[in-house]
Amino acid sequence: MADINTVVNGDSASCRQAADWLGRAASGVDANSGAVGRAQAASESCWQGSAADGFRQHIGQIGSDADKLSASATTAQQALNAFAADLDTVNARMTQARSVASAAGLTVTPTTIEAPGPGPRRVYGPVTAQVATEFFQTQAAYNTKVKAFNEARATVTDARKLEAQAHANLTGPMRERRARYRTSSRSARRRPAWH
Length: 195
Fold this sequence. Notes:
Largest sheet: 2 strands, antiparallel
Strand order of the largest sheet: 1-2
Number of strands: 2
Low-confidence stretches: none
CATH topology: Substrate Binding Domain Of Dnak, Chain:A, Domain 2
CATH class: Mainly Alpha
Structural class: mainly alpha
Number of helices: 3
Order of helices and strands: EHHEH
Number of domains: 1
């Protein structure tokens, strides 16, 4: 039996801090997008002609890009908050596995649950009652360790599946959003007519 690695790479607190920052950034972008929209609308009452139309088209694209940036920041914020929650769950399961192992007498370090090692050596031939009793007690203690080790391994295996899914859930929406933004930005970029 190999030792069980219980290290979880990732810090849910820092993920939440980043998510909070992204939320504030999205709010700031939304506020600026509103100002751009107001400037566009205000220009319609006092500026006419092809240069004005070019300006409004260009500034409209800026507003559209700002909306996409805000949506991307919000998507990342939501993904990071969900990832942080999943990391908390994974860490709780690792703690549970370490507790089960420790309670059974297995060696537990900050990064691993050590395997119980080989069982007690069988005793052959005629033995005294005391030797037989010690053997059966040692065998029972070893069986308890093996059972706890297997339970801990199952808990860690389930936690690793959740951890892998959490990583996929984190990166998937952001990749999708980035691909949509790049595609729409490339098709919308043109030199403004008012330049």
